Amino acid sequence: MNRVSDILSRKELLRDDIIFLLQLSGEDEKILFRHAAQVKQETVGNKVFLRGLVEMSNVCRKDCLYCGIRTSNSDVNRYSLSEYEVLSAIRFAHENRYGSVALQSGELTGKSFTDKISRIIARSEELTGGSIGITLSCGEQSEEVYREWFDKGAHRYLLRIESSSRELYERIHPRDANHRFDARVNALYALRKIGYQVGTGVMVGLPFQNVEHLADDLLFMKRFDIDMCGMGPYIEHKDTPLYSYREGLMTLNERLQLTLRMIAILRILMPDINIAATTALQAIDKMGREKAIQIGANILMPNITPGRFRDSYALYENKPCTDENADDCKSCIDVRVHLVNHEVGYAHWGDSPRFAKRDVPKGK
Ligand code: SAM
Ligand code: SF4
């Protein structure tokens, strides 16, 4: 038995095992991918569930050093979709049997913003008779706001830890009261306490990041016992401070491949969670998301933001599908998913099986 097969046959992966697996290539990497695909087949099966992604607004109070829509970037056309526009996108998702939507935005904490989100959640419950699954990704909020949104009908929340290393987190964020590592972690615990299905994730291939950080990120997710994960390659944006650290970074393809290994290892570590095949994978490789589905991911987030706003939600360079309408993306979903021998689970929430086993208040 070679070393990879030996490690994969163990009941539990230790930190050193994960570090080793993260660095595989060639035939050994294929063994890892085959194993993860098998674990996936035996647990969540070959269904892919959809979350129609609505990028509600690119207005953000934060200044994350990697993000193209950070507040200090004056070269962004700021927009906020109206409630009507968000609800139209939700209606589209409902009519096309997507099962769920993911409502994402820059982070704002004022009452007019949080009330608007509350109204959108309540209206979409009315519009769909409570049948649409709602994932939110609107950054750090107070526990009261998280609770209000949960009570209105949202039941999943994605908040990436970005890096579980305090030291690395502080290097990729401004060191001020708005960007505290502890606040990020506490927000995840608040979401868990309220009863959300909690998702987190990291960027892969960041400046200053090494495989030890990434192994610790996976162990952080395991320890927190997340329900869902969304992680993707870091892709630099020229109008951000981290851009000046691009020399010496891995190539984009290396970041893609490392992200795939992260996904495969996470599937082995946490077989029954939901793992998203993220848009950033597709920005590097047209088949990036399909590759992720083959080796561990089971969630796809087709962008259903009205086409004319997509260019303005540029977190990084070459973000895909910015010139397409929701219909264009819809027509290719089935084809793409079938291409890798999977099926779309239309009209289903596709909740994380991990969450179903948990003893917490259930939303909706
Ligand atoms: N504002 C909310 C937040 O930060 O949680 C949600 C929206 S934010 C744009 C969603 C995710 O985009 C972040 O969690 C971050 O991981 C990712 N992101 C931002 N800039 C990126 C970049 N340059 N490359 C890859 N991913 C990036
Ligand atoms: Fe704002 Fe999120 Fe971008 Fe940070 S990552 S600047 S919080 S949109």
TL;DR?
This protein has a single domain, classed as TIM Barrel (Alpha-Beta Barrel).
Structure notes:
It is a single chain. This protein has about 375 residues and is of the alpha/beta class. It has one domain: TIM Barrel, CATH 3.20.20. The protein contains 14 helices and twelve strands. It has helices spanning about 5-10, 15-20, 25-45, 85-95, 110-130, 145-150, 165-170, 180-195, 210-225, 250-270, 280-285, 290-295, 325-340, 355; strands at about 45-50, 50-55, 100-105, 135, 155-160, 195-200, 205, 230, 230-235, 275, 300, 345. The strands form two sheets. A ten-stranded parallel β-sheet has the order 2-3-4-5-6-8-10-11-1-12. It has a two-stranded parallel sheet with strand order 7-9. Strand 4 (about 135), helix 6 and strand 5 form a beta-alpha-beta unit. Helix 5 packs parallel to helix 6, helix 9 packs parallel to helix 10 and helix 10 (about 250-270) runs parallel beside helix 12. The chain is globular, with a radius of gyration of 19 Å. Iron/sulfur cluster (SF4) binds near residues 64 and 70.
